[in-house]
Amino acid sequence: MNKRDFLKAAALSVATVVVQSGEAVGLNLSAAIPKNYVKLGKLGSFPQARAKLAVGTDRFGKKQSVWVIRNKNTASGFDAKCPHQGVVTKADEKGFICPAHNSMFTASGTRVSGPAQTGLAKRKIAISAGMVYLVWN
Ligand code: FES
Q1: Assigned superfamily of 37-135
Q2: Which of 79, 82, 89 to mutate to test the pocket of ligand 1 (most atoms within 8 A of CB)?
Q3: Rg (CA), the chain
Q4: pTM of the predicted model, to two decimals?
Q5: What pLDDT does residue 3 have?
């Protein structure tokens, strides 16, 4: 290989590296989801104005259980774990009930009765590209 051929080959390999590097950066940016977002499911999988239990896994591998209530293209959420001892609550026609010691909560998460001293904790929900996320701190 003479000097001219060597320089051509070197220029071609540099161009290839630049293109590959550009593609990799583009892919990383389009797939970027903040680390504190926990994916809960597609917005369309949540019924209108009814609580649906969603479970996502945070970046530490811990399950996060959230009641998601969809309102058209927005959603709100409550922690599904009972504030008494952390048992996952169940939804009923009036709101939520804890199966462990019968703490009861309204549909808006307010405590009604039972050993729980507070209501269900509100959780921050984000929607991006039709996907519902728990914003977890
Ligand atoms: S854990 Fe829910 S009432 Fe005790």
Answers
A1: Rieske [2Fe-2S] iron-sulphur domain (2.102.10.10)
A2: 82
A3: 24
A4: 0.75
A5: 56
Among protein residues, the one with the nearest Cα to ligand 1's atom 1 is: 85
Consecutive 10-residue runs of the chain (137 residues): their mean pLDDT? 49 29 30 84 95 94 95 95 98 95 97 98 94 89
As for ligand 1, residues whose beta carbon falls within 6 Å of it are: 82, 84-85, 87, 98, 100-101, 103, 114-116
The residue nearest atom 3 of ligand 1, judged by CA position, is 101
